[in-house]
Structures are given as structure tokens and as C-alpha cells.
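Journal club prep — side note

Before the paper discussion, L.F. wants everyone to see what a predicted structure for a comparable chain looks like in C-alpha cell form. Sequence:
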Amino acid sequence: MDITFFGVRGSTPVSGNDYAEFGGSTTSLEISTPHCQIIFDTGSGFRNIKLREDVPVFIIYSHFHHDHIQGLAFNSNLFASRQNIYVCSALTDKASLKTILRTYFSGSYFPLDVIATLNHLEFIDFEALGALLPDRHAIESILLNHPGGASGYRLVADGSKLCFFQDHEYEPADQAAFREFALHADLVVWDGMFTDAELQGKQGWGHSSVEQGVQFAADVMCKRLAIAHHAPSRTDTDIRAFQAEYENEIVFFARESMALTI
């Protein structure tokens, strides 16, 4: 799997010199294999993803808060694509997903009815995704702890395992099944919106901490763990300080346009 972080910011895009190093775009992750392209969430970073024409393309949503869907209409490749692009979420069925996105990108909220215009977007139920994925590719979901709901995913492709956990309030004492889901993953993408100190006043906000991510990496014995979904207030200087304190051979802080292979 070739993985590129096209958006690593949470809640809202940010810009300016203080955010140039780690990036200001909201969540969008591209996974490319020889046989397909999979995109988790279409935050504002989605506009920079080049959609492939040589393989099936899948867009999979964790949930529908604006920072995870707001970039859908801003990728010019989406309007030029000549093939069907499959769209789904484990959080809801295909009809509800289509209604959510059409409401967001039309009417009072957007000048164009994007979903009606892009008739090559094929909405499918998550349960149908397995049959459409190429051989040696499989995906499973797990419910995350987030207001309004969110889904985490475990993607296996050609023997490599990726776990995508954005927007999750981790409660270590009560999540043995969650740890089992990520056991021995090649890469875990972790929601590091807060620090442990910040969590004290933000219970119920639906996010985890940097320190919890470091501990989680050790608990599940994963090969790499990327801390992402950086708070919009978190400057490059702040994240570099976190790097100095928490990065190790397993844990790292994701930045926009960072690419790696697992």
C-alpha cells in the first residue's frame, strides 16, 4: 500500500506561516495499490488528490462532520472522471449517505447540486464493498466513540494492514475489542486532537489525545502509528515540541503530503 496524507487537520482548515510545515487541510487519506485507489474522507485535503483512471476508485467516509466531507466538490478530477467512483460509509446505508451529501452540497449550503451533477458517483452499502474490492483486499469497520457516530476501518491489502481511527474518544478501560481490532497493524492513523491535560475539560467532545496514541501503539504492537487530526490551534512549533517529546521509531506526527509505503 502506498499511503499519502492529504489532510491532517481537525475541525476546520487553517492557513498562515504558523501552519505551513504540517499543513492546514482537513482529513483526507489516500491509499493506492496496484489494483485500486481508496480514499478515506474528503476533507479540504481531498482537492489535491489525483483520481486514478486505471483502477477502481472508492471513497469511504468515517462520518459526516463538515471537516470530513467539505472538500468533495473541490477536486477537479472528480468532474473530469470517466469512470464510476464508489462511495460508501459503514455508518449509514447508501440512500442516507447520498441524502446527507446532497443536502450539504446544494440548496442553502452550496450553489450547485453536486451529487446530481456527478452522476458517475455510485453510492453503495458498506456491506457490498467487499465484493467490489480486488482480490487480496478486505475491509472491516468498528464503531468509534464520537458525537453523532463515526466508523473506524481496518483495511488489508496484499498482506499489509492499515487502521484508520479519526474522531474517536478513546477510553482505555473499556475498549479491549478496539485494541484487538488494531493488533499488529502495519499502520494506525490516530486522532491526536488533544493532549491528556486538554482532555480534562473536553470529555464528550469525541477525540483522543497524543499521549493515548503513544500508549496505544505499545498496547497493540503496531509497526507505525501516525498522529493526525491536529487541532486547528496547534502550530508547527507546537507539533515540533510534541515530536521532541513523543516521537519514536513507531510513533510519528503526520503532515500534509507525507507519503509512505507499508
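L.F.'s comment for the group: The chain has a mean pLDDT of 96. Keep this in mind when we get to the figures.
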